[in-house]
Predict the 3D structure of the following.
Amino acid sequence: MNQNSKESHFPKYVVGFLIVSFLLATPLLLKIYKRSLEPYPAVMLPSGEWVVKREGNQAYYNAIELLAVKMGSDSLERISLEDFLYPLPPHMITPLANKEFGLKHAENRSPREVDALKGWLRTRLDKLGYVSDSLTIHKTDIIINTGTGQILNRNVNYGKTLKLY
């Protein structure tokens, strides 16, 4: 093999490396510029983290919602998962909610760990303008009309309020 053939393959690898680097770095750069522009997880999972069941003009899916009382209000309001979980991606809510943010088996943790966890949750709520004494987790079944985008039915099938004091 002569030296010219080795040199002719080198630029192909460099070009390939640059293309892959660009594809992987773009979502990161968008996130750094403005968090809401980040296409994650769409870059890796075009249909999102789950596939929505669809029958005719209706779509069925399950959602996990976090709720708390907004400062100056008396009613529960939904919390933006993106804002509450940042820097974690919103799809991480599923394992966190299933374990009630680590409080589900609090007896297996030291009182110091439980206090630190509750303190972190209170801080997140305070930062977003919510009363920080409790956090409610709802697992909700939702039916949407795919033609109009209207929510046809919303049924909470699980609700748990975490006391944070």
In short: The chain has two domains: 3-37, 53-163. The radius of gyration is 22 Å. Helices lie at 3-33, 81-85, 93-98, 111-127.
